[in-house]
Amino acid sequence: MSQPPATIRRCPICRKPRVAEYAPFCSSRCRDRDLVNWLEEGYTLPGPAHDPEGDPD
């Protein structure tokens, strides 16, 4: 009995096929771009806006 075709997993940055060494990315370049997005607050989570005036110190 034949196997169903394997689904090609793609890099979340550039959509090229993933490479196991850099999973879930295709290269160190895409992996580093993702890290920079996190460090420079390029990714956000939905939620209420932060009010710095309302924070107790």
Key structural traits:
elongated; Erythroid Transcription Factor GATA-1, Chain A; single chain; 57 residues; 0% strand; mainly alpha
Protein model, in words:
It is elongated, with a radius of gyration of 19 Å. The longest helix is centred in the middle third of the chain and has 12 residues, at 28-39. It starts with 27 loop residues before the first helix and ends in an 18-residue tail after the last helix. With 57 residues, the chain is an all-alpha fold. It has a domain at 7-43: Erythroid Transcription Factor GATA-1, Chain A (2-Layer Sandwich), CATH 3.30.50. The chain contains one helix and no strands. The model has no long low-confidence stretch (mean pLDDT 87).
- Tell me the helix content: 10-25%
Individual helix count: 1
Find the count of extended strands (DSSP E, 2+ residues).
0
Let me know the largest β-sheet. none
Alpha-beta content class: mainly alpha
How is the CATH topology of the domain at 7-43 named? Erythroid Transcription Factor GATA-1, Chain A
List the helices and strands and how they pair.
Blueprint: H1 28-39
Write a concise synopsis of the structure shown:
The chain is mainly alpha-helical. Helices cover 21% and strands 0% of the residues. It is built from one helix and no strands.
